[in-house]
Write a structure and sequence with these properties.
With 235 residues, the chain is of the alpha/beta class. It has a single domain, classed as TIM Barrel (Alpha-Beta Barrel), CATH 3.20.20. Helix content is 39%, strand content 20%. Strands 3-1-2-4-5-6-7-8-9 form a 9-stranded mixed β-sheet. β4, α4 and β5 form a beta-alpha-beta unit. The longest helix is centred in the middle third of the chain and has 17 residues. The protein is globular, with a radius of gyration of 17 Å.
Length: 235
C-alpha cells in the first residue's frame, strides 16, 4: 500500500472523538476541495508492506490495544475507498487476522462518499463509516460531489455517520436539499463540524454550529485536535 503518513494519536473528529487511534493516511483522492488541510500530505505516498506497517504499529506500543479494540485503526486520506486503497486495506487486515486470529480490531474509514465500494468490503472489514459529503463550499462541481449509489450504500451500513463542514447557515439548507432529504438520512446520523483549521477561528465557528444545532436539531462535534494542538500534525 502507498502510505502518506501513519501515526498514533486520538480521534479528534466525529462520533469517536477522544478515542485513541492509529491513523493510516493513504495516498490519493478523487476530489480536490479548496479548504482541504491535508492535500500536500495525501498527494505523496511511500510503498509500504504489510510487515512494515505491522512493525510500525508495534513500535508505537499500541498493538495490544488495537487487537483489543480499545484503540481504533482509522483509515483516512485523501480517499481510502479508491480501488487500490480498498485492496490495500483488505490485504493488511487479512494479514492481521491471519497472524492474530483472536482479535477485536475496530476499523474506522473516513470517506467523502463518492465511491461505491464492494459490499463485502464494508460488511466484513469496516466497523464504522465516517462519511464527510462535500458542500459547495468545497468548490467541487456537484456531479463530482454526489454519487447516489455510494451514499445509499453508506447510509445502509449499520454504523455510519455523515459529517458536514459548516461555514454558515446556508450550508444547513444545502445539506438538507442535496443530501438529507433525497437520501433519507436520519437526523440522528448527522454531525455538524465547524469549518476551521486553527484556534484563531475555531471558537467562533464552533459557536455558530452550536447555535445551528439549537435551531435545527442536529448534533455538533467540534475539532478536538485543533483545540488540543492547533495546527500541529502527527500528534
Amino acid at each position: 500500500m502507498k502510505i502518506s503518513e501513519d501515526f498514533y494519536s486520538v480521534q479528534g473528529e466525529g462520533i469517536s472523538q477522544g478515542v485513541p487511534a492509529y491513523f493510516i493516511r493513504l495516498q490519493g483522492c478523487n476530489l480536490n476541495c479548496v479548504w482541504c488541510d491535508t492535500t500536500e500530505v495525501w498527494k505523496k505516498g511511500k510503498e509500504t508492506s504489510n510487515e512494515e506497517l505491522e512493525e510500525r504499529i508495534k513500535n508505537s506500543g499500541q498493538m495490544d490495544n488495537i487487537l483489543e479494540g480499545t484503540a481504533h485503526i482509522v483509515w483516512t486520506g485523501g480517499e481510502p475507498t479508491l480501488p487500490q486503497n480498498q485492496n490495500a486495506i483488505r490485504s493488511f487486515l487479512d494479514y492481521l487476522n491471519h497472524h492474530y486470529p483472536s482479535n477485536n480490531i475496530y476499523n474506522e474509514i473516513e470517506t467523502n462518499g463518492t465511491i461505491k465500494v464492494n459490499n463485502t468490503f464494508l460488511e466484513n472489514y469496516i466497523q464504522q463509516v465516517n462519511c464527510s459529503p462535500k458542500l459547495s463550499n468545497s468548490q467541487m462541481p456537484i456531479k463530482r460531489r454526489i454519487n447516489p449509489n455510494a451514499l445509499e450504500q453508506i447510509r445502509n451500513h449499520e454504523n455510519s455517520w455523515f459529517k458536514f463542514v459548516i461555514s454558515s447557515e446556508k450550508d444547513i439548507f444545502e445539506m438538507e436539499e442535496d443530501y438529507i432529504n433525497p437520501f433519507h438520512i436520519k437526523k440522528s446520523k448527522i454531525i455538524l463540524m465547524p469549518e476551521s483549521d486553527s484556534l484563531k477561528t475555531l471558537p467562533e465557528k464552533t459557536q455558530l454550529c452550536y447555535e445551528l444545532s439549537k435551531k435545527y436539531g442536529y448534533r455538533t462535534i467540534t475539532r478536538g485536535h485543533i483545540l488540543a494542538w492547533n495546527k500541529k500534525t502527527e500528534v
